[in-house]
Amino acid sequence: MKITQISIFLENKRGRLCEVAELLGKNNINIRALTIADAKDFGVLRIVVDKPQEAVGILKEHKMVATLTDIVVTEVGDQPGGLASVLRLLDDNKINVEYMYGFVEKFSDKALMVFRFDNTDEAIKLLQKNNFKVIKEEEIKSL
Amino acid sequence: MGQTTMIWNEKVECMKLEDLKNLQSERFAKLVSYANEHSQFYRSKFHHVGINLKSIRTIDDILKLPLTTKDELREQYPFGLKATSIDRILETHVTSGTTGNPVAIGYTRADLDLWAEVVARALCCSGAVPGNMIQVAYGYGLFTGGLGLHYGAQKLGLTVIPCSSGQTKRQLKLMRDFKPQILACTPSYALYMVEGALEEKMDPSESSWKIGIFGAEPWSEAMRTQIEKTWGMVATDIYGLCEIIGPGVAQECHHKKGLHLFSDVFYPEVLDPETSKPVGEGESGVLVLTTLTKEGMPLIRYVTRDIVTMTSQKCPCGRTSPRISKIKGRTDDMIIVRGINVFPSQIEHILLNIEETHPHYQIIVDREIRGLDQVEVMVEIKEEFFSDEIKKLSSIQERIEKRIESNLGISAKVRLVEPQTIARSEGKAKRVIDRRQL
């Protein structure tokens, strides 16, 4: 149920983000969700792609610093309070969110959210028990 | 300036060159036999190269003696170079160390007197006269800048405001309240204080400072013009190094045509850094100094690693001692940042102890418009320590910044970069990019 996210270290350098995007594009890798975390003078690009293993191989070949991280993608109601309901559940069960971001596309009328938890396995169990749909890796490809 | 300038020790400072040379020769012969008798270091050094000390008669014989290097001083830390018993050493100063030992210098009573004497000469050379007031904004402590100016100023009969460095607001308040005519600090700090003055709604050109004695770091003619215009003062250059005595080795007079080197006590040579042979008049080379009269830790042919030119032509001010140019560069990779000596190897040593980074780095030094030097250290992160969490990466940066600050005494900004991005050349890596217009 875990999904592999690729995190890429980005120096704060002109054109760096573009280089990464072009490299993935040339190799026919499709970005499904992304976010950039930026510090003072570097950033971390986090992406969910259709072929994570292949993508990370290509990045490393090109001397980029990339790492794989387990994240959870779950559906939340796309209406006021939708996100709050899942966060309330997590908070009540003392599961911390390290960071989160959203998908542009969706399977149903619900929104797709990416979560990075401090305890991924327990979070998945909790979400499923409470009828939140947790997306599988294969499903991402068919999006 | 509205005041008559004076020459502190006219007898030696304006001595005929022939007489000066005789004085140097006499002192040099004494020094060599003193060193041979009292300094184990020099005795074994002389023995090692097999010199007949009887053949040392004039100052020209100095070429027969071996050079003394900074590495030797480090190896002899703390007092291996002493030529006197420790109880006769009244004060010690220590340079900033690299990865190994720093250099420690011990001063006897006579050495402290000599220091006060040469700084008094330097102060007069800059235009100071007894009765003036001086604000000493060089650091007091192990660094020689503060105390050296202090001793010389008292000897000359100036009123000293021993501010030490930093605390700009207080510096400016004391300047306004006491109206000192003289300011002594690093040239970059003199420029930095302009900002402080403007913040306080002060007009810098109305400052009480009429004479600046600036040193401990390289600075340009452009910087001089800027300081002189902004503060409405005459900015002069002072040269010195802890190993020889501290500030007071050489000083510019108001003609600003090179720094008068007090060669009756510090004998200068300018050598080709490759061959160690003397270069011709006006040619660039490394400055090598011999302390002709020091007793605590005399140095013979000490290689300063500062590149200068030297001239013996008489200066219109009447002083006859040779004049050296401003420092044109270094023969090693030392950089001076805000008056503090920094060796790239110190940074390397810190990085070797930080497991998340490669010891591949590049130091970028830049000077802000307002005058202070900024240091940025680019460090390659190791792939296996890359985290997708910003806070972990930031904590690596902060850890390195803290260690640089505590080990080197300078604040630097650390920038993490991708592995393999810092250029590696075939020979020596380019560790330092100095963008300052010196």
Q: Beta-strand percentage of chain A?
A: 25-35%
Low-pLDDT parts of chain A are none
Radius of gyration of chain A, in angstroms, nearest whole number: 16 Å
Could you give a short account of the major beta sheet of chain A?
6 strands, antiparallel
Strand order of the largest sheet of chain A: 2-3-1-4-6-5
Shape of chain B: globular
Major beta-sheet overview of chain B: 9 strands, mixed
The counted number of beta strands of chain A is 6
Counting DSSP E segments of at least 2 residues, the number of strands of chain B comes to 21
Head-to-tail CA distance between termini of chain A: 16 Å
Give the CA-based shape of chain A: globular
Assembly state here? heterodimer
CA-atom Rg of chain B in angstroms = 23 Å
Helical percentage of chain A: 25-40%
Structural class of chain B: alpha/beta
| Poorly predicted spans of chain B | none
Task: Please report the number of helical segments of chain A.
Answer: 5
Going by helix content, strand content and strand pairing, the class of chain A is: alpha+beta
Count every helix of chain B, treating DSSP H or I runs of 4 or more residues as helices.
11
Arrangement of strands in the largest sheet of chain B: 4-3-5-6-7-8-9-14-13
Ends apart, CA distance between termini of chain B: 28 Å
